[in-house]
Amino acid sequence: MSPSVVTNDRATQISLDVTGLTTGSTVRLEKYMDLNGNGVIDPSDLMVQSFSVTDGQVPRIGGVRNSAVPGDDDGSTNGQVHVLLNYPAANPTVERIAGQYLFRLVDPLSGFAPITNVLTVAQKPYAQGVTGRVYMASGQPLSNCVVVCLLPDGGGSGTISDGSGNFTVYAPAGDYSVLAIKPGSVADESSGGITIQSNLLTTLNITNGAASVTISGHVSDAASGVALGGLFIQAEGDNGLFALNFTDASGNYSIPVTPDSWKIKVSSDSGLPLLGYVQTDAKLRVDSSTGNVANVNFQFPKATAMIYGLVLDNLSNAVPSLSILAEDSSYTYSQSALSDATGHYSVGVFAGDWFVRPENSSAAAQGLLGDGHYVTVTNSEAVHQDLPLQRVTAHVRGRVISPTGVPIGNIGVNAGRDLGSGFYSSSIYIQTLNDGTFDLGLFGGTWNIALECSGSTDYGVAGPNLVRTVVDGVDQNNLVMVAQPANYTLTIVAHDQNGSFVNADAYASLYVNGTNYNTCSSTDNSGTRHISVFPGTWQVGLSGDFNSRNYDNPRNQTVIVPGGNLDLTFTLYPIGQTPPSLLLSSFANGHFGFTLNGAPDAKYRIEYTTSLAQPVTWTAIRTNTAFGGTFHFDDFTSGPAGARFYRTTLVP
């Protein structure tokens, strides 16, 4: 192994060389976090990576090397394996936890006994940090525990406590959440907020709760059922609790938790890209209040296409270790990657339309922002897409508060650059500090600034959407965002005409007193979405590219809060098969006005009759195309006074 020691701020490659193999054979490499530092893989040590390499083979898609997946980079089938493993490879936070790691080489055919080698990750020395001790709620020290300092906008670093629970994490000055994590205990995300000041070691003791039940399951290939090991599985409790574990070599995991309601997910930077699989955003809701829960399983598809390129700053310098995210048009799948030391990135996907972008929250730490790009790929194709970044030239600073002026800390704020027609290119996400303040580094253009909508639902508030024009070199300060308490909950279900669940995000929007409010929610494993709202008339809909899944775009629904039905059902129909509706929208100057809602771009004929007595004679008034799924019309035809009945028919 070379190097055998790295500092946790580096972007580099670790060379793993294996000799003495049978020509063309396959080996598995496993990376363990050696929690007690004894140089031996114990049952309590965490397997944080696992991947296989075959002599003479490198992963390619469309003839292009998939640099996110390890392979034999010596170019020969020669009984030797030369692996160039990017550091960090998959999870920039987990891999920057300082400590001792053990790489184990395993022969799946048991031709030789496992061999281990040691990698040491050292902390970058800073003049400040946080120091303290980790305890269990019983008062006993929690030894050999992972302690991480997490930035509000994502990322961070950490270390492993000693045998008495003592730890010191060195970090740049700023606001952090500090968590102590060890299977068997449960962390409280709401209790570890701290401000690290320059040239000071701040003392913070941490207390974890004891786990008494487990949530377990299996992670595998969606097509073959092959087990996926070394993946980061996390559990998020509704009350701010947090627990985690990793899948073992057989793809199994078990997370000790407390009796509660939990959301289980395979982390977006779990290591799936390292194995060549595509991530979904699915969170499975699990109730462990009555005891252990088993068979909470996940399956993931293999990547069959690729997007790759260079990440460059405004001076054409390579930007290493930057998170890259690709999202499919249905908002169901997302794939993450890290640019390597030379700025190259590779994202494994499958055929379809994807939006690939730099994670600007991490780029902003370097004073950079980048645009996202739409990319269409087919199976077995590799598409080149560079990601140039721009320099931050101005700041928008403000504060998120309640209507009574109470600051709202640790809530997400989004800014998206408006390119017109509702298209947002560059976007950045940050979190407010404990006092509710935020600082957005942007560049010239029109930006939409809003609270992160799903996080707002979690906080029980709904925030405004504010539009600001940013001029290069001109800062804007004292922007106040008043988040309204949202004490009502919309429950939203989406299915197709056969009653099968349809995965899609839901949103609710309201325009009141000149201000737009938006909030949203992702689906849980039951197909239900919950959105927090406040009194008013809300437009509720589903978001996503439904046409690519052969559905018509579903129509929005109007909900009056309070008083209206807060349980909404959306039924999606195949393209062109959405049943139309004809709504009376006005009556003025003796004329009725109607709105037709139907399938987008379908043609409809409007007809009327003065009597429903048989036989009925229908008279055509108008034929029109429902561009965007709707049109308005007025009945200006003359006729005797009395009842008039209307209908619409689809014109082939």
How would you characterize this protein structure?
The structure is a single chain. By secondary structure, this protein is mainly β. The chain has 3 helices and 56 strands. The longest helix is centred in the C-terminal third of the chain and has 7 residues, at 453-459. The termini are far apart.
Separation of termini? 68 Å
Q: How would you describe the shape?
A: globular
Please give the radius of gyration in angstroms: 28 Å
- Average residue pLDDT: 88
Helix proportion of residues, in percent? Answer: under 10%
Task: Give the topology, please.
Layout: E1 5-7, E2 12-18, E3 26-33, E4 46-54, E5 60-61, E6 64-65, E7 81-87, E8 99-106, E9 115-122, E10 129-136, E11 146-150, E12 156-160, E13 166-170, E14 174-181, E15 185-188, E16 193-196, E17 201-203, E18 206-210, E19 213-221, E20 232-237, E21 241-246, E22 252-257, E23 261-266, H1 272-275, E24 279-280, E25 284-287, E26 298-300, E27 305-312, E28 323-328, E29 333-338, E30 344-349, E31 352-358, H2 360-363, E32 368-370, E33 373-377, E34 382-384, E35 387-391, E36 394-401, E37 412-418, E38 424-431, E39 437-442, E40 445-451, H3 453-459, E41 461-470, E42 476-482, E43 484-485, E44 488-496, E45 505-512, E46 515-521, E47 528-533, E48 536-543, E49 557-561, E50 567-572, E51 581-588, E52 591-597, E53 603-609, E54 619-625, E55 630-634, E56 645-651
Parallel strand pairs: 1-9, 10-17, 10-18, 19-26, 27-34, 27-35, 36-42, 44-50
Antiparallel strand pairs: 2-7, 3-4, 3-8, 5-6, 8-9, 10-13, 11-12, 11-14, 14-16, 15-18, 15-21, 19-22, 20-21, 20-23, 23-25, 24-29, 27-30, 28-29, 28-31, 31-33, 32-35, 36-39, 37-38, 37-40, 40-41, 41-43, 41-46, 44-47, 45-46, 45-48, 48-49, 51-52, 52-55, 53-54, 53-56
